Amino acid sequence: MFFYQPIVLKNGQKCILRNAEASDAVRHHAYFVQTHKETDFLLTYPDECTMDIISLERQLKETKCSGTDVEICAFVDGKLAGSAGNNLIRDCAKMRHRAEFGISIKKEYWGLGIGDALTKACIECAKNAGFLQLELEVVSENESAINLYKKHGFVEYGRNSRGFRCRDGRWQELVLMRLELDENDRKI
Ligand SMILES: CC(C)(COP(=O)(O)OP(=O)(O)OC[C@H]1O[C@@H](n2cnc3c(N)ncnc32)[C@H](O)[C@@H]1OP(=O)(O)O)[C@@H](O)C(=O)NCCC(=O)NCCS
């Protein structure tokens, strides 16, 4: 699904939101490792990015051509600052309405409005793809992300107190959130 949007950040810098391309594979891999080092709130550890560059190139190319999935990158001064995307959860009749949303921004770019813009962009893409529900799971201590999601209309529908088990043995509770995309249609 095609997406392109220039935006201005809270600090006045210009930022381009656009689809991740196959040619972004090297920097997308580096971005993945960096963002996963900078927070303990993501699903995987930095060393768990096992995808090689060729496979990542293929995946980014397929995602750009997909009618359902999308990966949108934010570029500031030509540098990859963050990325977010939607993935169809399961391709079967009873679940084709559900997509999962994921986002991470490099720490040096937090608080500038990139998370807001990428979330808005992904919601728009999910609607355009015909999804009726966007879903996510977030660590309950991740206040910034929970605030971001609530701001965009996501609501909590459950918790999993043993959602993540860290390598040091700590549990991380997950908050399950969802956004109904056909809300306005149903109110009419
Ligand atoms: C969570 C994250 C995506 C927010 O992105 P961001 O670009 O810093 O967010 P923005 O500057 O666009 O802020 C958007 C909203 O998020 C919330 N938010 C962002 N930073 C916050 C903070 N430090 N404290 C509280 N709320 C915060 C606010 O609701 C904010 O809206 P506001 O500016 O109107 O108050 C970013 O911090 C991040 O990548 N964190 C690490 C990875 C991660 O946790 N991903 C989510 C996994 S579920």
From TrEMBL:
It comes from Eubacterium ramulus. The keyword Transferase applies. It holds the Pfam family Acetyltransf_1. One of its GO terms (molecular function) is acyltransferase activity, transferring groups other than amino-acyl groups. InterPro entries: Acyl_CoA_acyltransferase, GNAT_dom. Residues 15-182 form the N-acetyltransferase domain. This is GNAT family acetyltransferase. It comes from the Bacteria. Keywords: Transferase. Transmembrane segments: none annotated.
